[in-house]
Amino acid sequence: MKVIAVEDYEEMSRLAAEIIQSKVQSVPNAVLGFATGGTPIGTYKQLVANAKERHLSFRMVRTVNLDEYVGISAEHPESYHSYMKKHVFEPLGILPENCHLPDGEAEDLVLECERYEKVIEQLGEVELQVLGIGQNGHIGFNEPMTPFSSKTHVVELTASTLTANASYFLNVKQPTHAITMGIGTILKSREILLLASGESKRLAVNILLEGKADEKVPATALITHPNVTIIADYPALGLK
Ligand code: GLP
């Protein structure tokens, strides 16, 4: 694992955007794996600004997302479909037919997980998978004790994750379940870029950096992957 320590959120976002963008410049039809949550928003903003300024095209890029809530429609303002459309797909001009997320409203969720896993397989290797990290060390929505070999599956969100995301659902019912790529699915990516910002991530980041793979902290699965870069700011590293 390569660890890059940066001063703050802005520096993390600038650097992450450069890494994603240089991937697209070298492989214009790359399959990119995207994450949601608060952490990558600055990266996506920077990516959009750079694309405009440097006339970069994302037209041929194909995307997969880590996860989606169960029981809310794609049009729901807090769905990950809406998040991606707003922050990434529309501003970068990625063709809708090339954007893939699990369907959290599918009638048969088990079949939907199988379908999504196949979609990822058929796209070929994910060139670069962007990840955030939960306060409990989750990646995607893979909560503690998820097997490192897991494929796309339905999860019941833990109390820690529900609390961390409660502010997005102040006036509407908060989903309790999600569909997530498995840890095994994530580990198949050629390259992984994990972003961590803020003091609330310090414990999870510290455990990850200890370098011992342990299913109690899902992010530690990354220790077994040959090409992982972590960009963490000083507060996430406990340096400030
Ligand atoms: C969410 C998402 C993850 C994300 C993590 C951290 O629940 N499912 O993909 O990385 O939790 O979120 P944030 O970046 O808002 O701290």
Automatic annotation (TrEMBL):
Quote the pathway field. Amino-sugar metabolism; N-acetylneuraminate degradation; D-fructose 6-phosphate from N-acetylneuraminate: step 5/5
Query: Is Hydrolase one of the keywords?
Result: yes
This protein's UniProt keywords: Carbohydrate metabolism, Hydrolase
Any Pfam family: Glucosamine_iso
Q: Which GO terms describe its molecular function?
A: glucosamine-6-phosphate deaminase activity
Sequence similarity: Belongs to the glucosamine/galactosamine-6-phosphate isomerase family. NagB subfamily.
Question: Its function?
Answer: Catalyzes the reversible isomerization-deamination of glucosamine 6-phosphate (GlcN6P) to form fructose 6-phosphate (Fru6P) and ammonium ion.
Q: What is this protein called?
A: Glucosamine-6-phosphate deaminase
Q: Which species is listed as the source?
A: Fictibacillus iocasae
